[in-house]
Sequence to fold (429 residues):
Amino acid sequence: MTVNANDKELYTLLERIFKEKKEQFIPGKTTVQYALAVYDHNEIFEAVKSLLSGWFGIGKYASEFEKEFSKFLGIKQCILANSGSSANLLAVEALQLPKGAEAITPATTFPTTINPLIQKGIKPVLMDINPTTYNINASELKKAFSKKVKLLMLPHTLGNPNEIDQIMEFAEERDLHVIEDACDALGSRYDGRYVSTFGDMGTFSFYPAHHITMGEGGAVVTNNEELSLNVRSFRDWGRACVCPVCTIALDPNAYCPLRFMKTPLPDYDKRFTYITVGYNLKPLDLQAAMGLQQLRRFPQFMQKRKENFKKLYSELLRFEDYFVLPESLPKADPCWFAFPITVKEKVPFKRKDIVNFLEEHRIATRPLFAGNILRQPAYKDMDCRVVGKLENSDRVMKSSFFIGVHPGLTEEMLNYMIETFEEFIRKVK
Ligand SMILES: Cc1ncc(COP(=O)(O)O)c(C=O)c1O
Fold:
């Protein structure tokens, strides 16, 4: 990052504020968060600079972020959105599937992975998950398939990559679309390649709990030019413009020669010509300014997440008689969002006992999102097709939870987490 003389004062002030803000960790008093945005004066400096530029909407920071993020993933297009949920909605919209189409998706999920399907009249086909990877078993896709299935909408649960080579083979043989919900999986690889780059589109969330943050934010990534234009149009009110970031947004004094060229309506301004029935799901440029700094730090975040997961895994292995520990596939290299744990059956305690114990000791836990979505009040009567009995999804809803692996965890915090597990097991044994 370059800081010129005019910005120096602001930068120094923010640097000082952040130095003074550092909190001491007190075991049992300071909460060990399940997720945490790790940022400092650099992110805030760039966000303030963006605000001071006088341009609030998508502009030069968004343009830079989209380019850098695409380069990082090795994909052609990145389209920023204001959340991961919006990214999922845009990805589903961009496909323009016929009404009555079906989409295969896991029953254990985050609500806004499935919501765009319901909202667009696409019938969800709910598959059960594997009890250790928390993803669907690719070998069971055949059981879920019907002629109406047009889409596989697959989250890489908590950052754990799906068996994406088998899934893509299945999809290609049947001419199906694939959306990879990689909202929890930035940095996770399968066979050396980043997840989100296998399917038609991948989606990301930049909410503070996620691998990098913009406060709120999201993105759709794709190698498909046509889909990227659809996503941008749906995101930007439905308009006909084709530039990734508007020339006028990059420079308000610029002249845009494309506005009146090749327009669907003769002589009508493309910025006010609508080719899709769109939304406004754009982020602010200050979010992208923050995101750019986060992206540049991401290689360190990624390494720390992996180290934290490894340490917790190797220590919690001692308690394997009590807990199901997560597993990943041989070709997978996950950059975990969190550390999922399922309480085994026939142990002398229930999930609520360990969760309460951890929470009382200020170790934050969360359930695996919605659990079996069909048990949630809003979804219990939804029009869907269910494959099998969803026994593992029910089990996850009853017995699973997750704890943090985020890059803000210190050695002291990790040791405290492990000691607290030890203390609990000693008590219940
Ligand atoms: C798998 C998955 N998809 C989508 C989302 C939605 O992202 P956002 O909170 O940015 O809307 C989340 C949020 O955590 C998620 O875990």
Observations:
- Residues 354 and 424 are 7 Å apart (CA to CA).
